[in-house]
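Exercise (ungraded).
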Amino acid sequence: MMRAAILALLFAFFAQASLAQTHPDALTDPALETRAVELQKELRCLVCQGQSLDESSAPLAADLRRFIRVRIAAGQSNDQIKQELVARYGDVILMQPPLDPGTYLLWFGPFLVLFLCGSVFAVVVARARKNSRRQD
Amino acid sequence: MTGEIGQLALCLALALALVQAGAGLWGARAATSTSLDLSRHVARMSAFGFFAFIALAFGALTFGFVTSDFSILLVAQNSHTLKPLIYKISGVWGNHEGSMLLWVLVLAVYSAVMALAVRGGARLTSAALGVEGLLAAAFVLFILFTSNPFRRLDPMPFQGEGLNPLLQDPGLAMHPPMLYLGYVGLSATFAYAAAALITQETGSHWARAARPFMLVAWIALTLGITLGSWWAYYVLGWGGFWFWDPVENAALMPWLVATALIHSTLATERTGAFRSWTLLLAIAAFSMSLTGTFLVRSGVLASVHSFANDPQRGEYILVLLGLAIGGALALFAWRAPGIEEGTSFEPASRETLLLLNNVFLTASAATVFLGTLYPLLLDAVTGTRISVGPPYFAITFAPIFIALLLLVPLGPRLAWRKGDLVGALKLLAPGAGLALLAAIVIFAIHAPHMLAAAGAFALAGWLIGASIVDFRERWKARGAGVQSFASVLAHAGLGISLLGIVGTTLWRSEALEVLAPGQSMQVADTQLRFDGVTPRQGPNYFADRATLEVIRNGKQIATIAPEKRSYPAEGQAITDTSIRTNGFSDLYVALGDDRGGGRWTVRAYVNPLAPLIWFGGAIMALGGLASLWGRLRPNAVRAAPAE
């Protein structure tokens, strides 16, 4: 049912779009198109790991780019679209991993390492300074 | 025949590697100078022999590729008679087995050079050759058991399956050998560090012995990463230059740690400071190389770089990784308490700045490590799959690295032990002036006004301006030789790359249109007139070649011809982008899909300052070369300061 609805939407959208312009998939409203581009940069192409939807030339990525535009044209917010895609594909579709207990180490780890190294640095410099003063 | 010769040569090389390891390590503990000399001699001769046999094996495989000997499975799977000669040769390392053989060949070259140079005294050389021999044996075993390049195929096919067209590219023919020269060069540094721990000669002379090797490794890594990024830029067809892809990160991690290492070694060589830390970094740098090799070679990552998915290989490398790193760390933990430190310097000194460099580089390397391995770990432990993309690195890596870049200009202008911070800052004032100027100009001309953009340009201005000041100061005292310009070049290169990255990120223009012949599109100040697509035949591919006239200010200035190529042997298609550059800005055009009726999708970008990204990388490498040059001159050893 859902699928059929999406297909119908897609069809209606393309019938219009192909009449409107030569640019393959773009939305006519530049503000909405900017939002679509912004969103597709935040989402990962699921077939070719390293690239975002914005960069990928895979067919699935093209489908998802169209999907995003259909949803934006239907008045949904970027967050709503993201949530729906996460519900369907999981967190893996987000370029930026969510902050939750499972990713605390990932997010805070770099700064923890920086803090630890910084502390060692402070101790080493203080000790070297003491040595240096003693020699003088 | 060649296959059997190669196979036999590998087996003999394995035996020699074991002899080298045994003799070398025996020499490290030898009680008398006669037995030390004897075992060192045996280790050296084995190292030369190892090189000869590995070169023979590599030559045999190359011969198989060049003559299209499809009775060798690897050749049948990765080559084709119609391939141009250069890609028959680069096809040798365009696959897992062959690239591991290249890895070992590079290792053999380093071993032979270590044996030839005898840097750092007989005992240290002996022990270092021993450690290198152990690594060599482990990797040859890996090849023989899990990745034999000489496996036969019966019946022999008439034609090979060809090489992934993405890899049929001059940039990529050079990229793996360069990167391996870097990865494996760190094994020599590692071997010297381990040798220092084994022989308990942990003073500064091991660092002096290892320095040329770590410089070569660093230069090669810098160039390898630069080449890889350039390749991605022009091959992947949308003008990106860095993707934070795990495979790129696998090369970035050793580069970051090696950069920390060449800085901390400066202090260790000069004043004997940070001895244990430099040893630890040498171990860490090679651990990062091995981690990178594991990531790329085990097939845990799905990417162009991993050619096969064989868990046995992953397990073997993982065990090797554990033994090498675990063993070295255990050795370090055992010996570290005995290492004399007692360094003395003032907070305003070059030592402090070198330490700060290490603090930030370690944290950056840890960030890349986490960002690369965390998703794999999380998936393995909890089954949750996440992606760690560029936004993560923008939030974590970027601020840490920016803090580092801010401090870069200060280091070279502070004296050892006790520097003059106020004097250094006064001297660097022109650099700060340039930074301020850059910030104001960018803030004024760029719409919308962005503080971040102004800040980024200011940082690049600061690095470049300070390098100019540094150059002037060093020119005044140029008696010190070429190597005193190493930091000028390396730091200026950093600024130039940054300029390129910021410029192209900020000012990239992009256009995507479907064009019929005769129609035009506009990207930035450039107009592109599409003259249609004609078919063309290459040596081993068919291409659709588009012709576009480049028009600027009403004048036609050039013709460019992007292509779409399809490789029938491999059954794959790639886009061949066309880039027109004036050294400061790239016009980048890629041909998209055939939309029927002579209409094609065309993607065009103008990437201002993009060429500077790779130009900066080359300048950095040149800095490394200057440092190396100074150390390899015959009188360099005498000129080196006494401990």
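Further reading is listed at the end of the chapter. For now, observe: Chain B is about 65% helix and 10% strand. Chain B has a mean pLDDT of 89.
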